[in-house]
# Entry
Amino acid sequence: MMPDLVTPQESDGEARLAALAVLAQQVRDLVDAVVVTDVPEDELTSVTAGLVALTERLNATRRAAPLPHEFGPDGRFRHMGNAVTGECNPHALPLVIDRPAEGGSRAEVVFRPAHVGPPASVHGGVTAMILDHLLGDAVATSGRAGVTGTLSIRYRRPAPYGEPLVASAGVSRAEGRKTWAEGTIASQDGTTLVEATGLFITPTQWVNGDEPVEGAVNA
# Structure
C-alpha cells in the first residue's frame, strides 16, 4: 500500500530541507573524492577521524525513518529521501525528471565516478535503477500509476560516467491493471546505450479508490 502522505505543515521546514539538500550534495562530492583520491595514508587517517566526529554530530538526533513521501508547499508530490530523485539523499544522483507535453518522461543524466562498474563505464545495476524509476514515472504520468512487476534490461554499449547522457521512457501499452513501458539511456548523439522494458501493476487498492498521487511509483 502507499504510505500516508504528509502535508507541508507536517514536513520539515523548507529552510531545513534546503540545508539538508546542500549537505547531501556535499556528501556526494565527498564520495566521489574518496573514489578517486590518491592522498597519502596519513591524510586518509586524518580525514577519517574528522568524518567520525561529523557522523557523531549528525547522529545526535535521528528520525525514526528517512524523509517521507509528501506534498510540497506548491501542492506537488515529492520524495526528498528517494534513492533516485531525492535531493536530500546522498545516494541519489539526484535524477531531475522532465515530462514533455507530448507524453513520457525524460531526464538529463551525468553519472559520477562512484557509479563505476566495468572499466570507465557505469555499473549495469545503476543504469537499471535509473531506468526502473523513469519507466515508473512515465507510467504514473500517463495516469496509470503502478509498482514494478518485471524489468528487462538490454545493455547495448558501455555507459560512460562524467558525460551528459539522455534517459527517456514512455508507455507502450496497457491492459487492465497492467501497463508496459519502454525506455533508453542514450548518448547526446542519440546512440542507444541501455534499453529497458518494464511491466507495472496497479495495486487493487489504488483501483478501488485509494489512488496514489502523480509520480508515486518505485518510491
Remarks:
- The beta strands are 70-71, 77-78, 97-98, 105-109, 147-155, 165-175, 178-187, 192-201.
